[in-house]
Amino acid sequence: MIDVRNLTKRFGDHTAVNDISLRVGPGETLVLLGTSGCGKTTTLKMMNRLIEPGGGSISVDGVDVAQQDGPGLRRRIGYVIQDGGLFPHYTIAEAIATVPKLIGWTPTQIQERTRELIDKLQLPESLLNRYPAELSGGQRQRVGLARALAARPPVVLMDEPFGALDPFTRRHVRRELFGLNELRETTVVLVTHDVSEALELADRIALMDKGRIVQIGPPDELLNHPATDFVRDFLDDQPRRNQLE
Ligand SMILES: Nc1ncnc2c1ncn2[C@@H]1O[C@H](COP(=O)(O)OP(=O)(O)OP(=O)(O)O)[C@@H](O)[C@H]1O
């Protein structure tokens, strides 16, 4: 569970995140949605201390993240970025093993978990000895997810995790991933500017504008009861409405 209270971040005299409060329940998928530059990524990166908050507090499972060291925190919170965020000189097997190894899993445990994940993500075993540059974008994305999920973190943060993919692969990969039982039990915060993606994946959407949350709620609530003209204009689109019906 994530509890964000009165979170603020300024860069110089620009307020990137302006007094944001939200809660994400266990197993919930919350999507941070909004226009470019509205503060989504900054909000996400404060959750795992890649960016230090200017004000406010964040707790994960009841523990204030400011009281925990950054590297330790990032071992407990999975993090997925656009192109998978893989180190070029690590093989796929090494990439997936990174966190389990750091927290002391045995080689057998790591091997079993790796097999389980690549099987779930429909990646061929032959890929394990390759380097990221030898994979397709969709494969890299799935490896990035396998790496983030490897040590079974209770919380996973995702920043435009499908952004690098063509529309067809994007739909396929996200259905594949979010169909996994494992991910259903994980608390996920996902950043996107893609409305369809938000409507498809979110239990709740936090729609942001200029560093603030304009409205937060289940997708159908935002569609049917937009709090402002901005919310209506951002979401109002007949084909997208049809997706929910
Ligand atoms: N390190 C930084 N130094 C100065 N300004 C920054 C920094 N990081 C972000 N900003 C500014 O803060 C604002 C919010 O940025 P952020 O990356 O959180 O937006 P975003 O909603 O994720 O946008 P996008 O969808 O384009 O990635 C932007 O105006 C951005 O230019």
Q: Tags for this entry?
A:
245 residues; alpha/beta; six-stranded mixed sheet; four-stranded antiparallel sheet; 10 strands; 39% helix; 26% strand; globular; binds adenosine-5'-triphosphate
Helix amount: 25-40%
Give the CA-CA distance, first to last residue: 30 Å
Structural class: alpha/beta
Count every helix, treating DSSP H or I runs of 4 or more residues as helices. Answer: 11
Report what the structure shows.
The strands form 2 sheets. Strands 6-7-8-3-9-10 form a 6-stranded mixed sheet, sandwiched between helices. By secondary structure, the chain is α/β, with parallel strands linked by helices. The protein starts with a strand and ends with a helix. The chain has 11 helices and 10 strands. The relative contact order is 0.17. Strand 4 and strand 5 form a beta hairpin. Residues 11, 14, 16, 34, 36-42, 193 line the site of adenosine-5'-triphosphate. Residues 2-235 form the ABC transporter domain. This is Osmoprotectant transport system ATP-binding protein. Keywords: ATP-binding, Nucleotide-binding, Transport.
